[in-house]
Write a structure and sequence with these properties.
With about 425 residues, the chain is α/β, with parallel strands linked by helices. The protein is elongated and about 90 Å long. The strands form two sheets. Strands 3-2-1-4-8-6-9-7 form an eight-stranded mixed β-sheet, with helices on both faces. The chain has a two-stranded antiparallel sheet with strand order 5-10. Strand 2, helix 6 and strand 3 form a beta-alpha-beta unit. Helix 2 packs parallel to helix 12 and helix 8 runs antiparallel to helix 14.
């Protein structure tokens, strides 16, 4: 008997297909797998768009400013209020931390006001007293920097630093400025400021670039991290095993790195083998599975479903599925960049010596070379204490600007300003 033809209605065919799927366990299983897989993809798209290690990363909305907008406003308000101050801060005779910030004039936008405002806003009286803050205007003619002469630049720093060198040194620095030799001058400035911080006698030195935002409460987190690392790697009077603690890192280099592919392959194979062996064993023990899981089904699961799930795991992103927990972590590889380092006092002479003998590297590259050469460990505070906001490089060229825009910490934007205020007041 021929089936009846119903004009203009796909519903009977849909109903027939639905009844067939519900009546056939194998078909139902495949449909459910596809639906769950599509739901997983949708979940990844909506939740992992801020993860630069994910295939679902959105290069536009992923860089949206959230906490940074609040912190920039707080920093601006702090600088505005500081312009009304009439008396400079009185330096502590025994600071716990020297905060060194070097700044040079940028072609258009100056970020240094936001940097300083965010570093100082939210500090308690005791915390501010424990910091010796040096602001270094790194120009042979300090009047070339727009902030020179602004009221806050005179009252907020404990030391407003300019070049205090002999004529020969000053001529050399001026030559670097004229030739735009940012690498040589940057290293010189870093060592110069680092030495000045060392001279304060502070137990720790925080070197921060002038195009970042600091999270509210950064000082507590930074000093707690330094003390923790110091306790775990104590200075014995001659040596210690750590070089620095990062205050900033970018997640872009913390994904599924090719250097670790044997490890990823091994774990993937282990998961694959465990599931396949478990299915074979379960089928052997279950009459129901023997009826509904044929050899063909087992092959499809092994060669289609499992690889698809493993691939989705990697596509989802390492930081989304294996996030760094808050706290202090060892990070000997894939760290970037030089926005903020914390050094113990006893490490500063080594760093200065290496900088003065290696004038062909940038600071972040040189620090990695020193650590590798000396066998020293490197650490990081998670979440990041700093955010890089310098979309325009101080180097003043398009290539440097494009690279600067990609130096970003996505986790920093997840800070909650209200909770941070409650935590600092508590």
């Amino acid at each position: 008997m021929k089936p009846a033809i119903v004009l203009g209605g796909p519903i009977p065919y849909f109903t027939f297909a639905l009844r067939y799927i519900l009546a056939a366990p194998k078909a139902l299983a495949w449909v459910l797998f596809v639906l769950v897989y599509l739901l997983a993809i949708t979940y990844c798209r909506f939740n992992y768009f801020r993860d630069p290690t994910s295939a679902f990363f959105d290069s536009i909305s992923g860089y949206d400013k959230l906490y940074s907008l609040t912190r920039e406003h707080q920093a601006a308000s702090y600088i505005e209020a500081a312009n009304a101050l009439t008396q400079a801060h009185t330096p502590s005779a025994e600071p716990k931390l020297c905060l060194g910030v070097a700044t040079v004039s940028r072609p258009e936008k100056q970020y240094i006001r936001s940097t300083i405002g965010s570093l100082l806003d939210g500090l308690s009286v005791a915390e501010r007293r424990a910091i010796h803050f040096i602001l270094f205007i790194a120009h042979t003619d300090q009047h070339a920097h727009p902030i020179y002469g602004e009221k806050w630049s005179e009252t907020l720093p404990d030391t407003l630093l300019t070049y205090d060198v002999n004529h020969t040194e000053l001529v050399k620095i001026a030559k670097w400025e004229a030739e735009k030799d940012y690498r040589a001058k940057g290293l010189y400035d870093y060592a110069y400021l680092l030495q000045k911080c060392y001279d304060t006698g502070a137990s720790y030195v925080a070197m921060v670039e002038g195009d970042v935002l600091a999270v509210d409460g950064w000082y507590q987190r930074a000093t707690a991290a330094a003390e923790q690392v110091e306790d775990e790697n104590p200075w014995d009077g001659e040596n210690s095993s750590w070089l620095y603690i990062r205050m900033f890192y970018t997640e872009a280099y913390l994904g599924w790195n090719s250097e670790e592919w044997p490890q990823y392959l091994g774990w993937s194979f282990l998961v694959f083998l465990t599931i396949v062996v478990s299915l074979i064993g379960a089928r052997a023990c279950s009459p129901g599975l023997q009826r509904n899981m044929s050899n063909v089904s087992l092959i499809v699961i092994s060669l289609v479903c499992l690889p698809a799930c493993i691939l989705l795991y990697f596509f989802a992103g390492k930081l989304s599925l294996q996030p760094l927990t808050p706290g202090v972590h060892r990070m000997d590889n894939f760290g970037c960049c030089s926005q903020g380092f914390i050094f113990a006092r006893h490490r500063v002479p080594l760093v200065i010596d290496r900088i003065r003998h290696h004038t062909m590297d940038y600071i972040d590259m040189l620090m990695e070379a020193v650590a590798d050469g000396e066998g020293l460990t490197r650490w990081v505070v998670v979440p990041s204490l700093l955010q890089h906001i310098g979309g325009q490089s101080s180097k003043g060229d398009e290539i440097a600007d494009s690279r600067a825009k990609m130096i970003w910490n996505f986790g920093f934007e997840m800070y909650n300003a209200a909770k941070l205020k409650i935590g600092s007041s508590g």
